[in-house]
Amino acid sequence: MTVLLVIAVDGPAAAGKGTLARRLAAELGLPYLDTGLLYRAVGRRLLDAGADPADPAAATEQAQALTAADLARGDLRGPAADMAASAVAAIPAVRAALLDWQRDFGRRHGAVLDGRDIGTVVFPEAPVKLFVSASPEERARRRWLEMRGRGQAAELAQVEADLRARDAQDSARSVAPLKPAEDAALLDTTTLDAEAAFQAALSVVRARLPQGLPQGEGLDSA
Fold first, then answer.
1. What is the torsion angle, in degrees rounded to the nearest 10, for the CA atoms of residue 170, residue 171, residue 174 and residue 175?
2. CA 212 → CA 1, 175, 208, distances in Å?
3. Which of 24, 175, 181, 219 is the most buried (most CB within 10 A)?
């Protein structure tokens, strides 16, 4: 039986986990999935319908109706989508509806998945788990610069307040709260640039890769 490599990358918003996960996937030749897009897409469908993202019945209906095209929308980022995603992610039936989708993706060919509960719920058996974090101030600065780069007007103080509110909502929910898996490697990117963070993450993968799993070019090169 072929053993597939699944790498779980978790952490709060704007910690750099998405950038790291994409680079790891490219380096190792693995498929990549930003699982947060699933929740953002469900949240956006609810907002489009004029429904409350915290309404369990409406949110579950939209989660069950999710299509691949929903993940390609261009409006899945921003404060409204962030909070809607956090609200629907707290609903057990929504998480159940999306859980099999995520697991099927990872089990097809192996994968790098990033989110908030990959290592704790979606793939607790993943051989490599990373929990990527950074200070709230640094994460807010990064998100603010990202928004400015897209031409969005934003106040840094408000961006930080939104991030802290999202953190509190994600960490306090009763279902799959944001927290590191017990066996996750913790990576604080507060003082690291993108390249240093990637090299640190790749070192963790090298150290934790079990015998018998595919090595990939990236694991053998400097």
1. 60
2. 11, 34, 12
3. 24
